[in-house]
């Protein structure tokens, strides 16, 4: 059935600047371009169209299962389709099915099979229906979708209905007073499906027909046989070509039954309809932005944060620094010089003194470079349309491989900083850089995988794949980190622009509002604020199984995040140096990195408000993966803040004369 969602939407069109037109054009260009190499398939009239089955999944458990883990009608031989690493990691299992579909041939009340279920088998169905599992099918690389409508109130107060699509379709439903003919707390299975297939034809460009949409309407019906059972040729009283299955018929219960064997007859209809949608834009239905206005609002909100920070930074640069440079570089009379000597120039002999735990800082900055390289490259590929959802598992695979190959930047960037601190044990340092972050990820992933495996879910990664991941890590990533380190070590070590003094200078007592604890916590709010709306959509796509394809928006938000991290850290660091506190190394990393703490706190709020998790294992999965995502975000944003502050400090101290 269809369901309607009501929403009041603000009118944000007035807030959109002219820039939006340009950006929209760019986004449209990026989204109309699909993955090169995915060629359209042209079907002739009557040609067989294959329906493949994929995993069963539920947002309440986050544990996918193989389609045939439930006792559906099974073909004589189940054949698995070849899958890439990304698909295996996301729990996809694509297999053949018994459904027979031919191009443009309409079928009514086709019998798939008749099965007699014991109580134990019915319970399997009932349990999965209670957990709101959805079935995922694929025809011509298009996922099955269910149509639903949303009701929106426009700025003029008019009611507007718009059509949306949801991935997959429900395995069944729980009875209740709202659904006529059903009993409360009884599970009913969808044993009849109407497959609505849409085709596009254009005799000038190609021969035959191309499939451009695949919708499923599921129904539950307790079938009655007309006469005796004759296999596929049996006549049904509950479904005839003239009286098709419709809502409101007696549904097929799978719980609350007393008999030993329950007969369930599985049936389907096939409908074909022409469509004006071209093959190249057939995914637009699935990727239709439900709320593109919210994304614009998010970008305008983030741009305001950036403009505010940039104005603040410009003021510091222009007024304060300009005045400072002039004052520090003029030879003034002794009396005035003595009186004026306060501020950041006083710590010139301390500012490049190595911090505490320099090796750990270098490891974190190196890993940050690696994650930054991975994120930027993935986003560029995604914006160009290489990671369209038509290419299942591509995004996961791209992230994994790019992380492995970016190891060279981790080695190079980390070792340059390591040499800057005058440290020499580069082989040992490189080992820690190559092992620390991937090691934490692999350990948590392995532990979670054991629990998922215990639940017999297809989300559990097979041992062969785990070995493949270890080969990628130790066979490619680790050697690349060493290669980067070797190149960095071969170069002359970078020299600080001001030499550290022999005796550390005393730091005057700081006001409460300059405490490192406070400035670190305050510093993370703005970078998180600049991107949290986009984070909401990404989390919905990961945890609520929705499509995410707004990479154009994401790219703009990422640039804004980058600028915000850099600017907030520089501003905070400047205030700190003005008060003669030269311990800026760790603070620079943690100020921007603390945005990850807000990300993790937000994920807790998201879990409590949006997720309806029913199993302890699912809760572990959610928080385990959100911890890893937050850790990666911490290293990436921390590195952006640290590196920009490092260049800022080098620039200002390089511009003054000291004795």
How would you explain this protein's 3D organization?
The chain is of the alpha+beta class. The chain contains 17 helices and 17 strands. The chain is elongated and about 105 Å long. The model is unreliable at 1-37 (pLDDT under 50).
Question: What portion of residues is helical?
Answer: 40-55%
Low-confidence stretches: 1-37
End-to-end separation: 81 Å
What is the CA-based Rg, rounded?
30 Å
Largest sheet: 4 strands, antiparallel
Count all strands and give the number: 17
Mean pLDDT: 86
Name the overall outline. elongated
Helix/strand-derived class? alpha+beta
**SS strand fraction:** 5-15%
Q: Total number of helical segments?
A: 17
Key terms for this structure?
single chain, four-stranded mixed β-sheet, 17 helices, disordered N terminus
């Amino acid at each position: 059935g269809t369901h309607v969602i009501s929403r009041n939407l603000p009118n944000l069109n007035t807030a959109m600047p002219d820039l939006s037109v340009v950006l929209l054009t760019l986004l449209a260009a990026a989204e109309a371009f699909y993955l090169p190499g995915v060629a359209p398939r042209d079907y002739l009239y009557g040609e067989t169209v294959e329906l493949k089955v994929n995993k069963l999944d539920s947002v309440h458990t986050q544990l996918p299962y193989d389609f045939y883990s439930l006792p559906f009608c099974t073909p004589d031989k189940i054949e698995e389709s070849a899958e890439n690493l990304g698909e295996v990691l996301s729990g996809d299992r694509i297999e053949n099915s018994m459904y027979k579909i031919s191009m443009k041939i309409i079928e009514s009340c086709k019998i798939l099979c008749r099965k007699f279920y014991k109580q134990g088998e019915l319970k399997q169905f009932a349990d999965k229906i209670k957990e709101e599992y959805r079935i995922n099918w694929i025809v011509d690389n298009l996922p099955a979708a269910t149509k639903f409508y949303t009701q929106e109130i426009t700025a003029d107060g008019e009611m507007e209905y718009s059509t949306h699509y949801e991935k997959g379709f429900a395995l069944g439903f729980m009875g209740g007073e709202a659904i006529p003919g059903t009993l409360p707390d009884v599970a009913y299975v969808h044993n009849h499906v109407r497959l609505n297939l849409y085709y596009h034809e254009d005799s000038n460009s190609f021969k035959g027909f191309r499939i451009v949409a695949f919708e499923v309407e599921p129904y539950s019906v307790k079938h009655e046989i007309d006469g005796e059972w004759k296999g596929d040729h049996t006549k049904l009283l509950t479904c005839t070509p003239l009286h098709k299955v419709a809502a409101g018929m007696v549904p097929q219960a799978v719980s609350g039954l007393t008999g030993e064997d329950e007969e369930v007859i599985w049936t389907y209809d096939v409908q074909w309809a022409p469509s004006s949608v071209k093959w190249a834009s057939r995914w637009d239905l699935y990727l239709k932005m439900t709320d593109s206005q919210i994304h614009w609002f998010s970008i305008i909100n983030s741009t305001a944060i950036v403009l505010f920070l940039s104005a603040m930074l410009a003021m510091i640069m222009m007024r304060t620094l300009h005045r400072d440079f002039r004052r520090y570089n003029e030879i003034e009379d002794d009396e005035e010089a003595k009186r004026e000597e306060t501020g950041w120039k006083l710590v010139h002999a301390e500012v490049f003194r190595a911090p505490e735990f320099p090796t750990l800082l270098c490891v974190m900055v190196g890993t940050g470079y690696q994650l930054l390289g991975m994120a930027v490259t993935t986003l560029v590929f995604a914006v160009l349309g290489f990671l369209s959802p038509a290419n299942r598992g591509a995004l996961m695979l791209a992230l994994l491989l790019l992380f492995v190959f970016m190891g060279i930047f981790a080695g190079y960037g980390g070792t340059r900083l390591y040499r800057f601190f005058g440290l020499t044990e580069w082989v040992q340092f490189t080992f820690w850089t190559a092992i620390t972050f991937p090691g934490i990820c692999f350990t948590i992933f392995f532990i979670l995988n054991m629990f998922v495996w215990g639940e017999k879910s297809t989300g559990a990664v097979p041992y062969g794949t785990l070995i493949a991941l270890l080969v990628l890590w130790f066979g490619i990533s680790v050697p690349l980190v060493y290669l980067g380190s070797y190149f960095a070590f071969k170069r002359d070590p970078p020299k600080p622009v001001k030499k550290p003094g022999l005796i550390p200078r005393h730091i005057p007592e700081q006001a409460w509002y300059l405490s490192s604890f406070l400035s670190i916590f305050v510093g993370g709010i703005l970078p998180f604020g600049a991107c949290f709306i986009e984070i909401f959509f990404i989390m919905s796509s990961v945890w609520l199984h929705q499509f995410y394809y707004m990479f154009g928006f994401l790219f703009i938000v990422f640039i804004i995040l980058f600028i915000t991290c850099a600017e907030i850290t520089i501003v905070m660091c400047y205030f700190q140096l003005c008060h003669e506190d030269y311990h800026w190394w760790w603070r620079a990393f943690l100020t921007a990195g603390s945005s990850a703490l807000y990300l993790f706190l937000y994920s807790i709020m998201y879990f409590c408000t949006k997720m309806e998790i029913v199993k302890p294992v699912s809760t572990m999965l959610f928080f385990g993966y959100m911890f890893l995502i937050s850790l990666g975000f911490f290293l990436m944003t921390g590195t952006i803040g640290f590196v920009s502050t490092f260049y800022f400090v080098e620039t200002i101290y390089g511009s003054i004369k000291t004795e």
